[in-house]
What does this fold into?
Amino acid sequence: MPPTDSGAAAGRTAGECSDARRAGTAAEPFTVSGWSREPEARFFTLPSPLDPDDFNISFIKELPLECLEGEGTRRGRAVTCRTTPDDVINELFAAAHNGGVNGQGQGGAYARLHAWNSLYALMGLPDDTPFPEAVLRAADQRWLRFMAFTDWFHHDTADVAFAVLDPSRTRVAVLAATDTDVDG
It folds into this structure.
């Protein structure tokens, strides 16, 4: 997905909406199973609807995300691609089921629970939303996978980063996680 100047401009207008409970729920797959670094889950609102073509790395890089900070030669290199809610739920399930290098994975039923809780939190859905309705709503969202070559990520197969734009195109959720068996 190509970067756009208008995406960067829109990213600079995003306001953060702190929600510790929702962030904790979104991060569940990466906190219950011994991942080495605390995941980042953040939520933003926009003053006007974002053009879907501007939901790209230019937009993401303007958000005040810890995972995009970092010194060194890797700074500035980042990419995005569109993805699907199926891809996201599979990553969330794998994270909870397999666990991080410092812990054990969750059993299948618990891994599914943590994955779906996380997906609901990313979409801002109430806990009592029926599953079929959540699946339909997930298809109405715009989903991105991104990778930033910053010092926050460990640059291996355990790097995961997603952003989701709601149907009103005024709310964005971001979830990033990384894991490694290398200290420091």
Remarks:
- The first helix runs from residue 5 to 13.
- The longest strand covers residues 142-148.
